[in-house]
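Quick log. Single chain, no ligands specified.
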Amino acid sequence: MAAATERYLYDCASDRAVFYEAENFLFPLASSDAAFRVDGDYVFCMKTERIAFWILGKQLYGHIENGELTRDPVYHYGD
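-> predicted structure:
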């Protein structure tokens, strides 16, 4: 059985790791409680079940509402 792989998400403004992804969930670095769920190209908030981010390549853009996204990426994968 293969070990689960983890990927880290970095804040685009500070370039510091803030989340890690394991088994389609995003966890804050200092917590074992998932904050977000990854489903395809979308990231859903665990509390609200609303789309929080859109994944484009290795970058995540914030989902503002009404299908609008932030102009610049908020997070990026470090791999």
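The chain has one domain: 7-77.
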